[in-house]
Specification:
Mean pLDDT: 93
Structural class: mainly alpha
Helix content: 55-70%
Radius of gyration: 24 Å
Order of helices and strands: HHHHHHHHHHHHHHHEEEHHHHHHHHHH
Number of strands: 3
Oligomer: single chain
């Protein structure tokens, strides 16, 4: 999983803003560099101006100083107002004949067309009704993430963060309106998700200034800001939180507890909600970036479960286990040798593995990112409902390293045999490597540096776990079994997510695949299931993306034979950023043809 935020926080990062014409376009030199065709260059330049306006979080991470003082508008009114703006972009793209474009221009044309089509469809489905919160909280948890990647080095930075604090009450108010609309229309989160969200939202409503995550950027201010000015800045920030944000936090908690929870149904999946099947089909297509149906995804999951299970049996035997599969899982889940005894020990083991992973990169990649990453504990205020690990993107422009986040709570549920695979997925060669390279792809159009193509991003993370085998990273049969257990986890996601949201399964039906086929600890299984319930469709991206990536590699190896170079192959996949699966296939087919034509 690539971000500290999940569905509940996605809402504050959603695109919503005034028409692009209200904002200056980037300099023409950049647009010209991005496209040979003048009409396409103009669209890309205008769309960049639009994105910088509607998504100030990403723009700020890119070093846009003005964006650091703004927050997105998450209101339904503003979202609906984007339809004519996006249609304008779609019409301009449709007027350009892709057949007359260069390969790179055609790729950007097709990709942007895809992105805009998805954005317009999402508006019509009004997904904000359930995006506003999940089992991992609501807008407050998303805002805390933004605070965690905010660095104050000048008085202007401090003023910008205060401006964002002053804009945050509207974020809460907008999302409150969105969930009210969900109640009115029947598109609601189930009771278990509301209860989980409240375990984070109610403590947030009772925060004191000394513990407020939104004030952490002011904890250490640079000496270049005089002490008297520092005091004024801190007082302004504290007042913005106390007078503007705290009342909204309390209103959120009260609404969820007193109004939403009594009306939240026990039934879990979207299949039980008005329009839920249409919405779920849209989400599966979007997260997988394919035209696969939920039924097809479910069938792929079952096939993968059977395939992976056979390999797990082999590693179980290599470990010398003479009992059955179920007893081996019990052994792994209960034997103290497989668990750290302190938070520090778990973090140190993850750090050692991360550094060992760094050591294996040059053999597999010709291009590596400039941005480093760190190994950090998940903040204690959110760890209870948080997954085992995650990745937080950094920003070279703002002086923030990427972060491999390790959950150091409930140590008896964090099997060390799974830690190598987790480290490769979240750190390198997984999310940090891929996302940092995407951020640094300055020769491509702006929209591709921050676009979220979940199937590629999470498929790459799972592929990175597989690369651990080629790196000789897994040192024991237990660690190799742990890698397969993690792959099984993603296969069971296909089965359980579609089971819950398409086939109408109950929790026990969804739980069985993980419990019976993987070594995941019970706490992790329950945490993950709640994430799938509250964030429909996202879990289908991982395995679908990884299967396609491995298929592309197999095709390249077969066609290139001795000329296949793994470092060149990985650079071709990563350096220009992620793509939807069909576009990725086309790009890599061109690469294979170019490699065939390249002189030895």
């Amino acid at each position: 999983m690539k971000l500290v935020i999940a569905a509940g926080a996605v809402a504050i990062l959603a695109a919503a803003a005034a028409p692009a014409a209200a904002y200056p376009a980037p300099v023409q030199a950049e647009a010209a560099r991005n496209a040979e065709n003048p009409a396409l260059a103009s669209v890309l330049a205008d769309y960049e101006a639009y994105l910088r306006a509607v998504d100030p979080i990403s723009a700020g991470m890119e070093g846009d100083r003005d964006a650091l003082a703004r927050m997105p508008d998450g209101s339904r009114t503003f979202e609906v107002a984007q339809e004519p703006v996006l249609k304008g972009f779609a019409d301009r793209l449709a007027a350009i004949d892709p057949a007359g474009l260069s390969d790179e221009d055609r790729l950007n044309h097709n990709f942007l067309t895809y992105v805009i089509q998805r954005s317009r469809a999402r508006i019509s489905l009004d997904t904000g009704r359930i995006d506003a919160f999940s089992s991992e909280g609501g807008p407050g948890q998303g805002l805390a993430y933004v605070a965690s990647v905010t660095r104050i080095t000048t008085a202007a930075d401090a003023d910008a963060w205060i401006a964002r604090l002053e804009a945050m009450p509207k974020i809460y108010a907008d999302q409150l309106d969105n969930v009210r609309r969900g109640l009115e229309t029947g598109l609601v989160q189930p009771r278990s998700i509301v209860e989980n969200a409240l375990t984070l939202i109610e403590p947030e409503a009772a925060l004191t200034p000394d513990a407020d995550p939104l004030l952490k950027p002011f904890a250490t201010l640079p000496a270049s800001i005089p002490a008297a000015q520092q005091a004024i800045l801190r007082e302004r920030a504290a007042r913005a939180v106390a007078d503007g944000i705290m009342p909204q936090r309390r209103a959120w908690a009260q609404f969820l507890r007193e109004t939403y929870l009594p009306r939240a149904p026990e039934t879990l999946g979207l299949v039980h909600r008005p329009g839920g099947r249409e919405l779920y089909g849209f989400l599966v297509r979007g997260f997988t970036t394919t035209e696969l149906t939920p039924d097809e995804v479910h069938a792929i999951g079952l096939e993968e479960v059977a395939r992976i299970r056979a390999r797990m049996d082999t590693e179980m035997q290599a470990a010398g286990w003479t009992g059955d599969f179920a007893s081996f899982l019990t052994f792994l889940r209960t034997d103290p040798r497989f668990y750290a005894t302190t938070r520090e020990e778990l973090l140190e083991k993850a750090s050692e593995m991360a550094k060992r992973a760094d050591d294996g990169l040059p053999a597999l990649f010709g291009t590596l990112p400039r941005l480093p990453y760190g190994v950090r504990p998940v903040p204690r205020e959110i760890e209870a409902n948080y997954t085992t690990g995650r990745y937080n993107p950094g920003s070279m422009e703002n002086g923030i390293a990427g972060g491999y986040m390790v959950n150091t709570s409930s140590l008896d549920q964090r099997g060390l045999y799974e830690l190598p695979a987790l480290t490769l997925h979240e750190g390198v060669p997984g999310h940090h490597l891929q996302i940092a390279l995407q951020q640094e792809a300055e020769d491509g159009p702006y929209f591709r540096r921050s676009v979220d193509v979940t199937a590629f991003v999470e498929g790459w993370g799972l592929y990175a776990e597989f690369l651990g085998e080629e790196m000789d990273f897994y040192r024991t049969p237990y660690e190799r079994f742990g890698r397969l257990s993690y792959e099984m986890w993603r296969a069971c996601r296909l089965v359980s997510d579609t089971g819950l949201h398409w086939l109408g399964w109950d929790l026990e039906q969804a739980r069985a695949c993980f419990r019976d086929n993987s070594a995941l600890a019970p706490l992790n299984i329950e945490t993950e299931l709640q994430r799938y319930i509250g964030w429909p469709g996202q879990a289908t991206a991982y395995k679908i993306g990884e299967i396609r990536l491995r298929a592309i590699r197999a095709r390249a190896e077969a066609e290139l034979g001795d000329r296949f170079d793994i470092r060149r192959f990985h650079d071709a996949l990563l350096v220009d950023g992620p793509l939807p699966m069909a576009l990725l296939d086309a790009r890599m087919d061109r690469w294979i043809a170019e490699e065939k034509a390249r002189r030895p």
